[in-house]
């Protein structure tokens, strides 16, 4: 068997999986988006753009998603990078494994239980009650965009930490020592050596978190209390409650298109940024 044949044989299972579990369902949703809602719900075959014309009715869901998903990604990055840097560069090797386990421990518990824990923390008997003891009254966190933002950052933080940690852990520490020997300040070393070389981890972490946040529905449903909802919440309502499969498919396809455009622009920007990684300056 030739090398090309062996490669094709190895890729066949993954290719079939993607075809059956991704391409075909997406094709069905695409076809449904041009249909109509039946009298009892569901889908009636047709060819109409009415569902796409009604997309402004779900503008609030798109607005919340397009604002909070990028904000959540940025917030997770700002928290995850210093943590990953500490674990990879500053943390003593004998403690590193234990610290990594602590980062992943939240994943051992259902996201549903973790989200309900935040209801108590952000609810009237949590942080607001604590703030009242120091004279700050009438503060409300639960069922607000802030509560949803806190929930999504907490829920997806480990997915941002580990790709960045892997990039920083592979960083040749001799580059940092050489930078210090040549007189660079710690900040300049970080800006010109560490940060450029950790770009792949940052890109991977941001893409993972952003894509998952764009389809999130559980955390907004719990911490948003029906007042802050994402496109995922709109899809749950359209497919399971309203049973308007055609309109739900149009909303889903629009979300997929937005994600494809956003991720493509982001990856193009990262590739251009990564093109300068070889120009690492130590002075």
UniProtKB/TrEMBL annotation:
<dbReference type="GO" id="GO:0055085">
    <property type="term" value="P:transmembrane transport"/>
</dbReference>
<feature type="domain" description="ABC transmembrane type-1">
    <location>
        <begin position="62"/>
        <end position="268"/>
    </location>
</feature>
<dbReference type="GO" id="GO:0005886">
    <property type="term" value="C:plasma membrane"/>
</dbReference>
<keyword id="KW-0813">Transport</keyword>
<feature type="transmembrane region" description="Helical">
    <location>
        <begin position="141"/>
        <end position="166"/>
    </location>
</feature>
<protein>
    <submittedName>
        <fullName>Spermidine/putrescine transport system permease protein</fullName>
    </submittedName>
</protein>
<feature type="transmembrane region" description="Helical">
    <location>
        <begin position="245"/>
        <end position="267"/>
    </location>
</feature>
<feature type="transmembrane region" description="Helical">
    <location>
        <begin position="100"/>
        <end position="121"/>
    </location>
</feature>
<feature type="transmembrane region" description="Helical">
    <location>
        <begin position="201"/>
        <end position="225"/>
    </location>
</feature>
<keyword id="KW-1003">Cell membrane</keyword>
<dbReference type="InterPro" id="IPR035906">
    <property type="entry name" value="MetI-like_sf"/>
</dbReference>
<comment type="similarity">
    <text>Belongs to the binding-protein-dependent transport system permease family. CysTW subfamily.</text>
</comment>
<keyword id="KW-1133">Transmembrane helix</keyword>
<feature type="transmembrane region" description="Helical">
    <location>
        <begin position="7"/>
        <end position="34"/>
    </location>
</feature>
<dbReference type="Pfam" id="PF00528">
    <property type="entry name" value="BPD_transp_1"/>
</dbReference>
<feature type="transmembrane region" description="Helical">
    <location>
        <begin position="66"/>
        <end position="88"/>
    </location>
</feature>
<keyword id="KW-0472">Membrane</keyword>
<dbReference type="InterPro" id="IPR000515">
    <property type="entry name" value="MetI-like"/>
</dbReference>
<keyword id="KW-0812">Transmembrane</keyword>
């Amino acid at each position: 068997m030739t090398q090309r044949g062996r490669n094709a044989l190895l890729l066949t299972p993954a290719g079939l999986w993607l075809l059956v579990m991704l391409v075909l369902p997406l094709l069905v949703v695409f076809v449904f988006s041009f249909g109509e809602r039946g009298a009892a719900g569901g889908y009636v075959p047709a060819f109409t753009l009415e569902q796409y014309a009604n997309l402004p009715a779900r503008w609030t869901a798109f607005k919340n998603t397009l604002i909070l998903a990028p904000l959540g990604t940025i917030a997770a990055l700002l928290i995850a990078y210093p943590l990953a840097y500490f674990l990879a560069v500053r943390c003593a090797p004998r403690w590193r494994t234990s610290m990594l386990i602590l980062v992943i421990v939240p994943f051992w518990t259902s996201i549903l239980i973790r989200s309900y824990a935040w209801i108590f923390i952000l609810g009237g008997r949590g942080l607001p009650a604590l703030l009242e003891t120091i004279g700050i009254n009438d503060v409300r966190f639960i069922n607000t965009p802030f509560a949803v933002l806190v929930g999504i950052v907490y829920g997806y933080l480990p997915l941002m930490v580990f790709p960045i940690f892997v990039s920083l852990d592979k960083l040749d520490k001799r580059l940092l020592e050489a930078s210090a020997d040549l007189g660079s300040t710690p900040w300049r070393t970080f800006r010109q050596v560490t940060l450029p070389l950790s770009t792949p981890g940052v890109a991977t972490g941001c893409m993972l978190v952003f894509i998952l946040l764009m389809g999130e529905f559980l955390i907004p449903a719990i911490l948003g209390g029906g007042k802050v909802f994402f496109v995922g919440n709109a899809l749950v309502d359209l497919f399971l409650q309203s049973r308007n499969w055609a309109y739900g498919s149009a909303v889903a396809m629009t979300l997929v298109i937005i994600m494809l455009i956003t991720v493509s622009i982001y990856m193009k920007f990262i590739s251009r940024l990564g093109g300068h990684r070889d120009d690492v300056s130590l002075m």
